[in-house]
């Protein structure tokens, strides 16, 4: 096998304009890891945070002065081409889907722990599968944390920030679980969000959440940035739950102060506020791939880019306002 590859890299933290297609060594799988020949990745808000090292707190975990992994792209669909020692349950030639925590997907080859991979079901579109691991996985975990489980019939849920990657899946999954879904997004995305299953939509610029009568919801999933916690709290019933998915916040600690305030607010009586830290959950990804294969969820794909235009895709993600997901086909 070739020992080097051309990958989209940025050695220092900064904007997408600084990523370049450079030679890099093909990574070697260590114990428990496999090497994937990448077929597709999709982009997430987290890729932009890691690219820019913003907030600074991100750098404590991913590299103080420069990113330890200079290649972005955390969702992976690929073919297993090599296995490290002590890999169980995954074989060379398997077509798989999974999450590359920390990145590495905007490259022809990437390594990933075998335990994070699940089989790509036959006949499932590669680009559609690439949208699932982080965005749909986060939406699933947010709904679980909100108490909107399978059979959420009769629950009324508000999804704030419904048009992005996580939001478009949150609306579909909440509706699929039987909830009555209300959603806030930009005016231009209201029709899209209604098609995904929202029974009522709001233009977040012209109709602030303050226009909604108090106590209307059993759960709120907040995927937008910077909404005041008191405004969210007013919307849910006393035994309801608010799940905070969104990042945002200041340049140093990001969402951490808001999360701490949420915990403090939850100590007294009234709605619970739960900050979400989604993690790779292979069993959830398997369930999502089944729903995709059965046509019960349909990713909203705003653009599919060939590998050569990976920098353009990342710059579009960085600019924001993408309705749904951006996919980069690597193979
Ligand atoms: N907690 C976790 O474990 C976890 C996991 C994954 C992602 N996240 C966070 O979740 C957020 C979404 O991620 P993503 O990948 O889905 O990003 P994304 O695709 O960029 O989606 C963000 C969406 O939020 C909308 N929005 C922004 N402000 C809004 C407001 N005030 N009201 C309504 N909508 C608003 C944007 O729509 P416009 O077009 O109107 O701008 C955009 O569609 C990010 O903050 C990310 O960091 C957290």
Would you summarize the structure shown here?
With 331 residues, the protein is an alpha/beta fold. Helix content is 27%, strand content 27%.
Describe this structure in words.
Helix 4 (132-145) packs across helix 9 (282-293). Strand 12, helix 8 (256-265) and strand 13 form a beta-alpha-beta unit. The strands form three sheets. Strands 3, 4, 5, 6, 7, 14 and 15 form a seven-stranded mixed β-sheet that branches. The protein has a six-stranded parallel β-sheet with strand order 10-9-8-11-12-13. A two-stranded antiparallel sheet has the order 1-2. The protein folds into two domains: 4-131 and 299-329, Quinone Oxidoreductase, Chain A, domain 1 (Alpha-Beta Complex), CATH 3.90.180; 136-275, Rossmann fold (3-Layer(aba) Sandwich). It has ten helices and 15 strands. The model has no long low-confidence stretch (mean pLDDT 95). By secondary structure, it is of the alpha/beta class. It is globular.
Q: What is the secondary structure topology, with strand pairs?
A:
Layout: E1 4-9, E2 20-25, E3 33-42, H1 45-52, H2 57-62, E4 75-83, E5 95-99, E6 109-113, E7 118-119, H3 126-130, H4 132-145, E8 156-160, H5 165-176, E9 180-185, H6 190-195, E10 198-203, E11 217-222, H7 229-235, E12 236-244, H8 256-265, E13 272-275, H9 282-293, E14 301-306, H10 310-319, E15 325-329
Parallel strand pairs: 8-9, 8-11, 9-10, 11-12, 12-13, 14-15
Antiparallel strand pairs: 1-2, 3-4, 3-6, 3-15, 4-5, 5-7
The structure holds NADP nicotinamide-adenine-dinucleotide phosphate.
NADP nicotinamide-adenine-dinucleotide phosphate is lined by residues 44-46, 134-135, 138, 160-161, 163-167, 184-186, 204, 223-225, 245-248, 276-278, 320-322.
């Amino acid at each position: 096998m070739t020992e080097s590859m051309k990958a989209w890299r940025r050695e220092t933290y900064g904007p997408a304009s600084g990523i370049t297609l450079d030679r890099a060594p093909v990574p070697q799988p260590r114990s428990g890891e496999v090497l994937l020949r990448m077929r597709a990745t999709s982009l997430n808000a987290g890729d932009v945070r890691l690219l820019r090292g913003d907030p600074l707190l991100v750098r404590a975990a991913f590299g103080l002065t420069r990113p330890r992994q200079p290649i972005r792209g955390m969702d992976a669909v690929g073919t297993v081409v090599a296995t490290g020692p002590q890999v169980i349950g995954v074989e060379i030639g398997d077509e798989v889907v999974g999450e590359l925590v920390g990145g590495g997907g905007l490259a022809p080859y990437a390594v990933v722990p075998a335990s994070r991979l699940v089989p790509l079901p036959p006949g499932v579109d590669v680009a559609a599968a690439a949208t699932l691991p982080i965005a749909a996985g986060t939406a699933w975990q947010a709904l679980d944390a909100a108490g909107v489980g399978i059979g959420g019939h009769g629950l009324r849920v508000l999804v704030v920030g419904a048009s992005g990657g996580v939001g478009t899946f949150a609306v579909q999954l909440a509706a699929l679980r039987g909830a009555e879904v209300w959603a806030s997004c930009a005016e231009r995305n209201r029709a899209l969000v209604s098609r995904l299953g929202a029974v009522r939509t709001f233009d977040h610029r012209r109709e602030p959440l303050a226009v909604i009568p108090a106590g209307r919801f059993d759960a709120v999933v907040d995927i937008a940035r910077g909404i005041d916690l008191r405004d969210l709290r007013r919307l849910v019933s006393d035994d309801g739950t608010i799940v905070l998915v969104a990042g945002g916040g200041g340049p140093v600690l990001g969402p951490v102060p808001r999360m701490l305030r949420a915990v403090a607010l939850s100590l007294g009586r009234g709605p619970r506020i739960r900050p979400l830290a989604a993690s790779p959950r292979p069993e959830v990804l398997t369930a999502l791939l089944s729903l995709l294969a059965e046509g019960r969820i349909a990713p909203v794909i705003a653009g599919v880019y060939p590998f050569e235009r990976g920098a353009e895709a990342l710059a579009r993600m960085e600019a924001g306002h993408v309705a749904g997901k951006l996919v980069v086909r690597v193979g």
